[in-house]
Amino acid sequence: MINVLKKKPVPAPRPVLEESGPAIEMPANKRPSIVDGHAHSAGEFSRGEDIVRTMDGLGVDQVVLCPGPLNEPKKWPVPNLARVIRKRGLGMVGNRLLRLTSGYVSRRFDLDVSNAYVAALARRHPGRIVQACWVDPANTGLTDWLEARQAEWKFKALKVHQCFQRVKANSPGMHDLARFAGAMKIPVFVHLFSRRDALDLLDLIAAHPETIFVIAHVMGLGVFSSAADRDALRNVYFDTSPPNLTPLGLVERALEIFGAGRLLLGSDTPYGRNNLAAAIARVRGLDISAGEKNLILGENARRIYSI
User: Fold this and answer.
1) In angstroms, rounded to a whole number, what is the distance separating the alpha carbons of residues 54 and 48?
2) What tens digit of pLDDT does each residue of 114-139 get?
3) Closest Cα to residue 63, out of 52, 73, 71, 76?
4) 104, exposed or middle or buried, with CB in 10 Å at 0-12, 13-18, 19+?
5) Cis peptide before 79, with omega less than 30 degrees from 0?
6) Which CATH number fits domain 35-305: 3.20.20.140, 3.40.50.10840, 3.90.550.10, 1.10.1060.10?
7) Phi first, then psi: what are they for 116, rounded to 5°?
8) Separation of alpha carbons 129 and 155, rounded Å
9) How is the chain split into domains, by residue range?
10) Model's pTM, two decimal places?
11) Cα distance between residue 209 and residue 140, in whole Å
């Protein structure tokens, strides 16, 4: 099992069993209008059939699926704290709490197996499940591994989570990752750990204007909104998930500063209760035009992920 916290050569993925049953394809004449831009293959989203059933019930066309700890489907009891923290969210304080769980997570979470499992789900449900590959920029041989896995899996995004992978945002590995993503025209999805990391990410963004960066949970908004050259951040988007931890006030502030064209719907399922339904309802309840809501609900994601 890979410990996602330690630097080591990147091994080839181990075989993973795919789901049984016929593949479910998206009708060719249907254009996606709602995209869940952030969910995990865990809990209630452990099985492809359950993911598709949930999306169908809510009128969702596609989901950008990140790896998660493989387990039997179950609920993850993450409380709705957005009602209490109405403006700023847990943000960097929550990250410190999350990092405390990193040892436990590393013992249960094999990135190789989980990435391969999401790739299998995407193959079985083309047009509905879109793979985001979770990588560790500190691993040696990263670019060769990315090239081999991209040829095999055709993933649409790369994810880095600094709570579990203690790599600096402007490290050599992150520059390699950004160059690869820019060449492949796929976004880099980043869960920042600290304000210092947000400042470092500004340097990475400036060095790679051809690469799209998605900032998880609207973290570091104060840093990005205070950037001296905000025009240089045209390649930056903000994931608004999850509705139970990222308060409406923070989403509205990002909307005011950067506009609807830079925000993405996200649920962070399964980490909460009925997150996807709540996320959709929250966007639909915003005091903006129908066209702006459509951008957040799916059009932005379709454009940047080329789906």
Assistant:
1) 10
2) 999 999 999 999 999 999 999 999 99
3) 52
4) exposed
5) no
6) 3.20.20.140
7) -65, -35
8) 10
9) 35-305
10) 0.86
11) 25
